[in-house]
Amino acid sequence: MESEILKNKGQKAFLLGNEAIVRGALESGVRFVSTYPGTPASEIGNIFYKIAPKQGVYFEFSTNEKVAMEAAAGASFSGLRSLVAMKNFGLNVASDFFYPLIYSGVPKGMVIVVADDPSCWSSAQSEDNSRWHDLKAKIPTLEPSAPQECKNFVKIAFDLSEKYNIPVMIRETTRVSHQSAPVILGEIKKGRNKARFKKNPKKFSTMPPRVFEMKKELLEKIKNVQDIAERSHLNFALNQNLKSKKIGSIVSGIGYLYLLEAMENLKIKIPILKLGFFYPLAEKKIKNFIKNLNEILVVEELDPILEKEVERLAKDVNPKLKIHGKNLLPEIGELKPEYVTLALSKILKVKPDFNYHNHLKNFQKITLPQRRPQLCPGCPYHIVFSTIKRLAPKDAIFGGEIGCYMLAAYPPYEMQDYLYCMGSDISIAHGIKKATKNKQKVIAFVGDSSFFHAGIPALINAVFNNSNPLIVILNNSTTAMTGHQPHPGNMGIKIENIVKACGVKNIKMIDQANIKEFTSVVKKFLEKDEVSVIIATGSCLFKKKKQ
Amino acid sequence: MQTFNTIILGTGGQGQITLLQILAKSAMMMGLDVKTSELHGLSQRGGSVEVHIRFGKQAYSPLIKQGGANLVIAQEIQETLKGCYFSSKEKTQFIINDFLVPIPGQKIIEKKYILKTIQNFSKKTILIPAQDICQKELGSGITAGVFLIALASYKKTIPLKPELIKKALKEVLAKKYLKINLDTFKLAQKYSR
């Protein structure tokens, strides 16, 4: 709630992790915020969209995450503190720019917030782990566990970014961004608003041979940030004064809260090293922590990255250390408190506080309701999908991607024969058409916001390289799936003009409810030798309601 | 106070997040630590919604562990079954809205099966047609969720007093919805006797 986020200094507000990120940015004097909607990061943009003008902050929904990151960098280049937020797949989209940006660095604080989604609560494509990007790009990365840390870490990230002229990442996972707790607030700062881009090609132009110097500078920066990490209170040890301390745990992110819970469940305490810095790693601190232990449990979601690092560091200081991690915790899906409790009970050889195994067995016998999300009752997409299903030849291939229309994958439609990232439906359709020498019909569905995001280059490619899929652009005038954020179409940029300008000759705009026209146009377009595009228009029901 | 763990289950659009905010605010007014978690994918499009709220002297995990719930509030009867994961015969009470949201293309899970199944996971169960009661007496079923938490409060199933939750309502809800929600409390009080 906006009123909670904007409460006065010193008060306690009840905030979602993502809301705390917003507050942290305001307390840091952020002046430029950009994003492309994607859950579990969506709330950050949604809130700024509402509050930014009154807070003197510039905010935009950009056309995609790469553009959003570039825009935020431009603001930082010009002297404003900037923040860009996205979900995991967004970072994949932005990565082309992300890597050289870390090389050049930024003159003014820039924070990149990335939300991963273990268990794929709101993600279709893959169970992504952005930590690999952090390692490859060498970007200082902080991992909060709870809303209070979300807020505090953003402030620390801005200061760090500005001190070392390097963007800093805040990496969340779903259970951090969608967790609420009381947060003690600091003061909202009005940051510097005067911006001017000072020419300095040495700083911002990555052309070789300068790029190698930049790489060298980056490595030096990371060394300095690593020194900070070694001293930082973000990496702290607990329960160091216990009598018996042969078994310990290293943990970061949400796992920390589960570990505290597990100790309470088992009524036992062990030494813990909690890492707020994921990159660069506080190696000395870790070495010091593990050197006298016999066994250690590394608690992290998804891939065993910290675990491998601990393995590497243990070789130096404690080669006999028994390292547990993914042997006891899942690599797929988000962590749960009972998983950490069970892992700890196993290592400590104590009886679990509850018969989890039997309970789970009993639970698994129950018939559960399988409530899949579906197109809303009354959504005009129902008409589009049922009409096209009726008309398309039996062996027609239906291409899909990310948006409400992906729900047509479920019965009664089952019309998503492939489904990857935004824009890919068109390019894959083109590839299939070329490969099968036009023997199969391909109908590709893309949403309006997706079309602006990544569909346009794919459409140009199909025209340029001369194939003939039928592309249906479902234009409901909003980014519906993520909560009805606006997109360029709402600013009068007409999709039909873009399609025409891409060189498409067969193009028809049809009202989504006009079954008769749909029928005749689909039949006609399926026989064409060139790309054809139907723009199916009709506002999302919820968008209508909001207006 | 030992941490009190509540799960609220239902389908998209039944207002779980608002209930979460109301309970969280109430617990905060008592000076307690609170942690909540929202588990939902595409809830607006008819998916299931599950929210967790924990309050007490100290609450670490935002998720309730397997078998760890003190109270399960189900706003839809079939969704109740998902609560069994978090429930145990020793400590869990169920409050269920006798209200069905059918799933297209799927057989309805019978009430008899649901009630029989949760016997193994529940210390006590209250099944009440909150939706119908609110619809009949207030002209709208929209506050059925608030009815359930009010009932839990009057029956002392949840350690938050009715007056406290009513105070929290005023902070969380828009003014125009306050009256119907306070009326819902009166109604729940009547049914709690």
Structural class of chain A: alpha/beta
Strand content of chain B: 15-25%
Give the overall pLDDT of chain B as a whole number.
95
Look at the helices and sheets of chain B and give the structural class: alpha/beta
Residue stretches of chain B low in confidence (pLDDT < 50, at least 5 long) are none
Count of DSSP strands of chain A: 20
How many domains of chain B? The number is: 1
Overall strand count of chain B: 6
Oligomeric nature of the chains = heterodimer
Tell me the helix content of chain A.
Answer: 40-55%
If helices are DSSP runs of H or I spanning 4 or more residues, what is the number of helices of chain B? 6
User: How many domains, in number, for the residues of chain A?
Assistant: 3
Spans of at least 5 consecutive residues with low confidence of chain A:
none
The fourth-level CATH homologous superfamily of chain B is: Pyruvate-ferredoxin oxidoreductase, PFOR, domain III
Order of strands side by side in the largest beta sheet of chain A?
Answer: 3-2-4-5-7-6-12
Q: For the record, what is the CATH homologous superfamily label of the largest domain in chain A?
A: Thiamin diphosphate (ThDP)-binding fold, Pyr/PP domains
In whole angstroms, how far apart are the ends of chain A? 20 Å
Q: Which CATH architecture of chain B is right?
A: 3-Layer(aba) Sandwich
Distance between the termini of chain B: 27 Å
